Amino acid sequence: MQNMQTQGLAKMILDSNYPVFICGAGISYGAAPLAKDVHEGILSAAAYIAASDKENFSFSKAAQALKHAEKDYLTLEMLVSGLLYRVPALREALNQLYDNIFWLKKVNRSNRALAEVVCAKKLPVILTANFDDGLFSSLDSLIANYQLVTDSNVEGKKPPDVGENSFTPAICAYHGTVYKRDIGETISRPTSMTARELAHPFMPAMAEYMMEVFERADKIFFIGHRGEDFYDMNVCISSYINSNNSEKNKFFCVPHRGDIRSVSEFFIKDLGPQSIIILNDSDDEWLADVCDFISGVETKKTSLDNVRADQVEAKLVELARNSLSEGDMKVAARQCQAFLDDIRYGVLAVWSITEHYRLESLALSQSEISAFGRPPEDMRYFSIPILNLLAYQKGYQKFRDELRRKNLSPDQVAHVLVDGVRLFFDLHIFAENCRSIAEKLENCRSISKTAERGIDIACCLLMTAIAYDYMGLIAMRFKDSPMRFVDEEPYLSGMCDANSLFTKSVAVAEEAGQKLSNEKHLAISSSDEYLKGLGELVAWEIWAIAPEENRLRLDEISLLDRVKGFQEVIEKRINLMKSEAEKGEGNTAFSVAGHAAQCSQRISELMRLIGFGRNKEDGVPDFSELDGLLDTPEIVRKAEEWAEICLKIGKEKSSHKNFRFMAAYDALILAALSHQGGEGRAKELLKEAETYADGDKNCTKRLDQLRTRLNPLV
After folding, report:
1. Interhelix angle for 454-480 vs 388-404, to 10°?
2. d(CA 257, CA 546)
3. pTM here?
4. Residue 612, SS3 per DSSP
């Protein structure tokens, strides 16, 4: 053992009745900084590929990109995301690179020491974010008896019962790995590597397994894990401790080499500072030291054999050459140049900011949204202080929540409205600045070669669209406020036209999408695939839907226009959901469940619009006012189909209950009541909704609304 602190931690683990490890890259990589080396290697490979187009390439550009890439916000996932959107032809090469990364790295002492702990049955359960060839090979060489739990086989699994001497330890690879029974019970490469695709919640069966592990454990240790799984593990832990606050005392975090800066705020905020265990004198092999003490087996010291950046570069370039023709390599070279420019200008920084807005528009929590990095405070996109957008987002949320408070005095309402006016004009200035930069880029090609870089204009326009949308939301709150003070100020009233602002937001977002077509010449074979990738990076399509949904909620929109508009936006969201869900298990982003939840609310609103509540005598919705104007039976049929899709995706892709799915049940109940003899089906749907809501306060609150639909029938 290296020191008394490390030995004390090992004893603490041994004294536990049911200790559990939650492991991150610190286990898989032997606590070595693999990500940084891969990060640099991928960037230098992109620069090397770009250099094949000697006529246009500048090595100083590559050097500048590498310098900009040192910014903390540019995570490996974000880097690879940007590269895939810019150079889609490299997807297969990047997939193969991930297959080879662990081949470049030898089995390390941490792998071996942890495998000895498994053999000694000292840890009933190990939850690991990464289950790589090093750990797998170590377990295999020791002929270790363990059960591997993954998304593919978790259904029906239970954590081991340590009361039985013959128990088999479980290693649960909760994301990043898929168990492949059809190829000799081996493991596959990480299933996703882009920031959006990486962020997907636990399957319900995996979430249930985690909860059972937490229940059985008396001490749970984060080992070599930063605690930044905001979209799955952290959600599960928060749900667990919220049901029993005292249980947070069983969680502990051991930062690598005692560096508390490597730990996310989750531990301090949700688990408390007492959960941090600092090993001041530990070295890179502290993890192996702890495991040796636990197992009683002394593993040999090893020299860490990190994956070097030059190895990653050489491998990725080789794979690209093998998978692309000479002509395709030349196009890929130009695409890599564009990607290096993206980093230099700050496109990925803009993406990290607008991604927060995209996810917030899907009603995801701030803890989930914060899974995406953010640029440093002084970051500017051309002259635009892009981080201000996050401040405006939080400012709007505060304004909205304060205005919703009950029993506000007139003075308090006035103060809130003044804050809203201030925020409105801040957003107005921001929007005008973004629009102005877009126009300058359009008219001055020397700034960013706009003939080739439509993405720069598109990013500026998208931020303009976001600002307009939030201005529209504030204007909508002004109109609904008790004082209606905006109507008394002609200048302010003219600016605060929510309908106009939402309409402008949609138009500007669509304009952003059009500007991306400037880069068609960078496509290899199909411009659709390339431009679709850029569209996902800019996310203009979302911002052509979100403000239109907000506009349709305005009272001045005619009933007919609202019904037709809701049908159109629902259809668009359904298509986005289907496209996302078709990627397959383990590859769908957690935003697909957000789309489904948001879409559920829209479908319910649509059904209420066309049904006008219900006839008091028999509970059947009345569609008569729209007879001859709309094909209401067809709308009802489509609404049922859409609601079923939303519920299916929500139950499959969301590991925790979302009260917005109760709106899908509301739509289905209204639809059932519109059919002759549909009361029985409506009652069945209510029971399904009650089963779904069981144990969730927010869902349960909304059951009363569903029951009122059936009151005349009960």
Report:
1. 20
2. 45
3. 0.82
4. coil
